[in-house]
Amino acid sequence: MMDAQLLASGVIFGLSIGSIFFLMAIGLSLCFGLMRIISLDQLLYYSIGAYITYSVSLATGSIWLGMLGGVFVAGIASMAVERFVFPRIYEREITFSMITSFGILIGGIGIIKYFWGVVPRPVPVPTLAQIDILGTEVPIYRLIVIVVAALVYIGIWLFLNRTIIGKAIRAGIEDVEHVEGLGINVSRLFTITFIIAGSLSGLAGGLHAPLIMVDPQMGLEVLAFVFMVVIIGGLGSIKGTLVSAFIVGQVVSLGSLVYAPLAQMAPFAIMLLILLVKPTGLYGSALLKR
Predict the structure, then answer these.
(1) How far is CA 57 from the centre of its chain?
(2) Euclidean distance between CA atoms 197 and 63, whole angstroms
(3) Could you give the number of structural domains in the chain?
(4) Residue 141 CA, distance from chain mean position
C-alpha cells in the first residue's frame, strides 16, 4: 500500500509535470485549431526558452528574469518562422507541415549545439523553500509551476472569449473562410496565434529548466508525451489539452511510484484506451478542412 505522504508527494509531482506538459502542448493545439498545421517546432521554442533562462540567469543571477527573456526570445523566434516559412505551406497537406516543422526542430537543435555545446547545463531552482502538505514536505517551486499553468489557462480562456482578437481566432478555428469573408486579416491572426504559442512553449522551457538538466535534445525527449497530451485531449481543444496534460502527468508520476517502467508505458496504454472509445480524443471534434 502507498502511504498518504508518498501519495501526496506523487500527486503534486504529477500536477507540476502535467502543468509543464500543458504549456508545451497548448502551442500545438492552438496552431492546429486555427491553422490546421502540426507545429512540432514548438518544441524548439521550448528548448530556446530553457537555454535563454540558463544564460540570462547565469549573467544576472535572476531565474525569473531569465524566464522572462526565454519567453521573449521564443516569441521572436516563432514569429520569424511563421512569417518566413509557414506561409508557403499553409495550403498544403497537414503532413507537409508536420515534416517541415520537424525539420525546423532538428535544424534548431543544431543551432543550439553550436552556441551552447552538447553538455547538459544545470539551472538553479528559484526557491528551495518547502511547504508541509499532509505531513509531506513539498517544494514550493512545484506549486508555483502549477499556479502559473492555471493562470495561463485562465488567461487564454479570457483572451479567446473576452477580446475582439480572441473571438476572431475562435471564429477562425470554426470557419476560416467565413472570417476572411468578414474582412478580417487572417494572416495577422495566424501570426498572433503563432507568437502566443511560441511564447508559451518558451515559458514551459523556462519553468522546466530548474527541474531538469538543460540539454539540446530536450525537445525531442518530450515529443512523445506532448503528442499524447494533444491526441488524448483532442486536436484543437484548449480544455482537452489541460485535462489530458494532468492525466498524463499523474499517470507518469503515480505509475513511477508503483513500478518505474509504468512511467513510460502507462501513458501510451491510456492513450490507446481513450482513442478506442473516442477516436477524436476527450474533447476533440471531427477534422475540419481549412
Answers:
(1) 22
(2) 22
(3) 1
(4) 18
